[in-house]
């Protein structure tokens, strides 16, 4: 079917034509659709049965232009392909932690998927100090499974290249390359920052050592095709409740450094941690919640490292180094050291990437609601100053990092300097 | 035209049908073809005018099977595409140093190119101690231009991804991954080595530290899509004379670590250096030639480093870090340090990859004529022992290498232990 923009009426007619949906939306009921989401890049519809509302799906359709600007700003609709294909891989490798994809139709730029109506986006409940006791276990399982099973440790050489070719994603990668690693650190008209931080922002943009380190991290981002990464895994791309965690919106997916996704999650928890210096007026409540956040960070990394290593030991099926390569006296020890070195290198990358991402949120175009929702400029400036100093340290000290406890200690050390 | 295997008769008829060749092989002459090459993977014809023999081309056609085995060993004919597309890029970026591609026809798996009949393959004249005084300058220019201009330092983000997608080359990459980095270092039935080296070969295959280091280098080979590399740039892939140097046969080309090509050239000169301990009976002649080889190695690296840095300063056109990123007080210094760090990292990679490649030539399936032509097993064993010890040091000491002089010093140090 040739591309045609759907609306709340035509979407229902359209779904009736899709064989894959016969059992999901049987024709013994009528269905209604409502549009949700900001609809800037995509149309998003909730479709639900009138008599059996438990029969429900989300329909996502990519628009060929940025709606807020209008048809003058054309955009490739390919992003729905990258998003859907990544979700299907998640469905296969980490089915508990992703919405089910029921159907896709790339001519129409449409994907039909599970309606996560029992889950909420993670960002806001973190600001209201909600705790999700299973989250660290869930997200570390998701990360370990997806990142391991799309790497050369698990895939054959040819499978890996085929995956890489499928996820070239040049348009959206270019956005992240510019807006995460480059533009925030130089003069660029879209940059936005708190004017009370002019001095510090200037200092960062003139810090040669820091900028060299960030540019090396950018090279990794561009070149190191380690695993299929989500590449935008902030707390707005996670939907959850007390029992379940789901990763959504992987339209930026490509084969890049695996630490990027881990860093994104951890760094968003650090930003949330920082925001509570203002959001949480009650000191006791604040400290308890900040402690919970740091424990969550610790559990995410340690959980990831342990699960990843176990997967590797049990499924060393890739062509990188087959078990026979390690078949010699003391070979088991050497393999264990190789694995440890590998995971330690991921942790150093988490530090560097996490730090870079903290900085870009303060200096660049894309802010984060946890912080931007602090209305008092002066209070926000203090929190932002903490984040900038912390981000810089995570970048510059990355090569000394050997445990998550060190990253947490640096965070607490910088937090002590905050006097609000 | 559907695929059909050419012979010395049909190739002439075929060429007449090709519009691109009208001016190169005009129809006012008759042409004859002869087949050259081992014809194992490809048919290679020389076509020449009967009256004007200066009108001549090489016609290369990929076979769909390994001829020495027969039709039972099918092979993808895609390699002619990779070879031809890489040569066309060489024609554009380093035209002096590659044969001109006149025509290609991928349905027929055919490429038509310049006949390098004034040049010879480099390997044998190196064994007979011939000197090529312009070689270091030529090959370093070739390497600097191709490696710089296919990297993110020169290309836009999207151009780079398009190039990467074009050169996925999964079949031939898999061969190099296995036969350079993995199989020589474990038990594999195709491995061949001098039985007089059993002890040392066993030692290498049980050296955990070495194997960890080599496996990390393999990760780089697999993941680090830095530049378009030839990926098989030994002295058998170079044709030259005193005035000119031409790089041929880039069918393994893909986007990988740029040090790989530099290491291949340098490492082949080291193997040749080693071979003269037996090939050159006259000590004075031997020492003079070995000195020439080491000077050539020095000039290749230093020439490459200088030319690469100059290109970068003059054409920092890529998206990796635009000039405006370095536009701050002391930004020029920071950019210079970033470039230096980058080039130093390439040198460390040269050490590691060069060492790995020395080892694989001694332990794996692919030997090298400079050494294999030494008939006396005992004499060859001594030379091979030197190469193995040297290769191991280049790998294990790579992180301490900051100048080519250090690699040369290690080579001379190991050579002193040789008593023939």
Question: Helices and strands in order, then pairings?
Answer:
Two copies of one chain form a homodimer.
Chain A: H1 10-16, E1 31-36, E2 42-49, E3 56-62, H2 79-93, E4 101-105, E5 110-114, E6 120-121, H3 123-127, H4 135-149, H5 157-166, H6 170-182, H7 198-205, H8 208-223, E7 227-229, E8 238-240, E9 245-247, E10 254-256, H9 259-279, H10 283-314, H11 331-363, H12 369-372, H13 377-396, H14 404-416
Antiparallel strand pairs in A: 1-2, 2-3, 3-5, 4-5, 6-8, 7-10, 8-9
Structure description:
The structure is a homodimer of 420-residue chains. The longest helix of chain A is centred in the last third of the chain and has 33 residues, at 331-363. In chain A, helix 4 packs parallel to helix 10 and helix 11 runs antiparallel to helix 13 (377-396). Helices cover 50% and strands 11% of the residues of chain A. Chain A has a 5-stranded antiparallel sheet with strand order 1-2-3-5-4, covered by helices on one side. In chain A, strands 6-8-9 form a 3-stranded antiparallel sheet. Chain A has a two-stranded antiparallel ribbon with strand order 7-10. Chain A has 2 domains: 10-111, Phosphorylase Kinase, domain 1; 120-416, Alpha-Beta Complex (Aminoglycoside 3'-phosphotransferase, Chain: A, domain 2). The model of chain A has no long low-confidence stretch (mean pLDDT 95). Chain A is α+β, with helices and mostly antiparallel strands and 420 residues long. At the A-B interface, helix 5, helix 6, helix 8 and helix 11 of A face helix 5, helix 6, helix 8 and helix 11 of B.
